Amino acid sequence: MADLSTSYLGLNLKNPIIAASSSLTGNLDNVKKCEDAGAGAVVLKSLFEEQITSDKNRMIGDMNFDAHTDAYDFFNAVGTDYYLDEYLGLVEDAKKSLSVPVIASVNCISPGQWTDYAERFENIGADALELNMFILPSNISTSGDTIEDTYLKILKNVKKNTNIPVSIKIGYHFSGMGNFINRAVKNGANGVVLFNRFYKIDIDIDKIELKSSPIISEPSEIHLALQWIALMAGEVPADFSAATGVHDAEGVIKHLLAGASSVQLCSTLLKNGVGRITDILRGLEEWMDKKEYGKISDFNGILSQENSSHPEAYERSQFIKSVVGLS
Ligand SMILES: Cc1cc2nc3c(=O)[nH]c(=O)nc-3n(C[C@H](O)[C@H](O)[C@H](O)COP(=O)(O)O)c2cc1C
């Protein structure tokens, strides 16, 4: 029987399947079900940076501190960390109930005061912290450099405040993707999750109004992450976790061949239930047996650009044949 174990962020995973951060992983029952179905690790639903600061700000905003600056200091320092405490409770409960690694997640947009709290995830037992970073680059006055510097500052501040491994989960809005990933790793990122999938708009032409695009991804969305995992794995010294569009064992196998050390599943679990993890693991094992691979490292990354005898094939970005008749 094939050995599915792998290493991600320095953690030993019994297999490369991670239940991705979503509403599904926002409660103990569900994360336990993910473990029971075979998940090698879970990423808990993201706590929003704004949640860490919001209660405190609301309390402070509601009160008149003119005559009581001590009270301001009290609320500011002690605060009412309702959301944070609730989230830390989830981390703690998950750690008590699960034997697989539990990765906490924060959705962050600024390197502000919230980063001081990073150590609390470690103290409560989180095995790692995933920083779900996304600033929509739509502000016409904000340069890409400014946004990238913000991401790196968040990362540096978090790393300063915790010793657990930290991964960054990013989108694909970078003109210098390879350079940014490399700088993030140099600034302490132990792992990189490629890619997050964001809410996008659609338009209802009957009602003539905005609507949401599909929340659930399609298997055809796998290719962007596949290409970037193949380009970066081995080139940058970090663990890569694949995300978006992985719905079956075939998708997982492709990412492992490209060089991902773990693969995150979300949409397929929301659509088919967490039992899907068991099916996918079975499919992975069957394929490994068929190909006579005894362990993941026998084939992990063999189709990354770094290990390829045709590295140029990974950087081709135009369909030349259809334009000028060349293949
Ligand atoms: C309903 C829903 C909630 C999500 N919530 C989070 C979240 O809190 N934090 C996060 O990092 N990603 C979140 N995601 C993104 C997923 O973790 C995942 O990266 C994305 O859906 C792409 O993977 P998939 O194609 O397997 O769905 C969410 C996705 C969905 C559909």
Question: Would you summarize the structure shown here?
Answer:
The chain has 327 residues and is an alpha/beta fold. It has a single domain, classed as Alpha-Beta Barrel (TIM Barrel). It contains 12 helices and 13 strands.
Key terms for this structure?
327 residues, alpha/beta, TIM Barrel, 8-stranded parallel β-barrel, two-stranded antiparallel sheet, binds flavin mononucleotide
Work out the oligomeric state of the chains in this entry.
Answer: single chain
Helix percentage: 40-55%
Specify the CATH class.
Alpha Beta
Low-confidence stretches: none
From the alpha-carbon coordinates, what is the Rg to the nearest angstrom? 21 Å
Structural class: alpha/beta
CATH topology: TIM Barrel
How many domains comprise the coordinates? 1
Helix-strand pattern: EEEHEEHHHEHEHEHEEEHEHEHHH
Write down the overall mean pLDDT: 92
CATH architecture: Alpha-Beta Barrel
Q: What small ligands are held by the chains?
A: flavin mononucleotide
Q: In percent, how much strand structure appears in the residues?
A: 15-25%
Number of beta-strand segments: 13
Largest sheet, order of strands side by side? 3-4-6-7-8-9-12-13
Q: How many alpha or pi helices? A: 12
- Terminal CA distance reads 41 Å
